[in-house]
Amino acid sequence: MSTHDDFDDLVAEAVAVPVQGWDFAWLTGRASEERPPWGYATLLADRMARADSALDIDTGGGEVLAGIPRPPRSLVATEAWLPNVPVARRNLRRVGATVVAVADRPPLPFRDAAFDLVTSRHPVDTWWPEIARVLRPGGRYLSQQIGAGQVHELVEAMLGPVPVGAERRPERLVAGAEAAGLTVVDLREATLRTVFHDIAAVVWFLRKVVWTVPDFTVERYRPQLRRLHERIVAEGPFVAHARRFLIEAVRPD
């Protein structure tokens, strides 16, 4: 089969696959990403087991939260992307969570001091004043965040040279937490090797992780996709680097 035919078939395959929820199993064998060393799922399970009332923000399809072995007495999850809401409700039945569809902007629809734990894995934005508001005194916020320069090599393959933004740098998050009256008690960073083995993996990833290239469509970026496909065929898998950091903060008593 020619490279041209390979490209069209791979792109068509990736476009046909749904991207709802936050399950990346379709990429198995097609792409891989190193895991952060701190083990967010283990930390989440520990904090949830010790909480009485907890909120998970930007839960996606609820896949990570559904894995906790001991849910708190009261557990709520929010999601702003409507196609994810029914997926999250199915996945989170096991842990007894209530899933609330919310707007993608503040405020959170909860009373002051409603939760002793707030968590979020890969939030779109971190609304520090709202997090501080809904936390009880002594309450805790735990989050794994996407850092500045996330898969920047892939972004530049689509857009050309672009500067790395400052809005997702850890020090900016720390400043936001402290300005809201929280005390940061843990901050860790990691750079993770991310490998794409074919152009189908790239297309599916860009369709799913929409903030990577915000105006991405196959039609709009077909020339760049074809160039990247030809590079993978000639040179082997395309390597980028994911940026992650862990932040944990406490509302003082």
What is this structure, in a nutshell?
It contains eight helices and eight strands. It is an alpha/beta fold. The chain has a single domain (3-250), classed as Rossmann fold (3-Layer(aba) Sandwich), CATH 3.40.50.150.
Walkthrough of the structure:
By secondary structure, the chain is α/β, with parallel strands linked by helices. The chain has a single domain, classed as Rossmann fold (3-Layer(aba) Sandwich), CATH 3.40.50. 32% of the residues lie in helices and 25% in strands. The chain has eight helices and eight strands, in the order αβαββαββαβααβααβ. It has an eight-stranded mixed β-sheet with strand order 1-7-8-6-5-2-3-4, sandwiched between helices. Helix 1 runs parallel beside helix 7. The longest helix is centred in the first third of the chain and has 14 residues. The chain is globular, with a radius of gyration of 19 Å. 37% of the residues are buried.
What keyword list fits this structure?
single chain; 253 residues; alpha/beta; Rossmann fold; eight-stranded mixed β-sheet; 8 helices
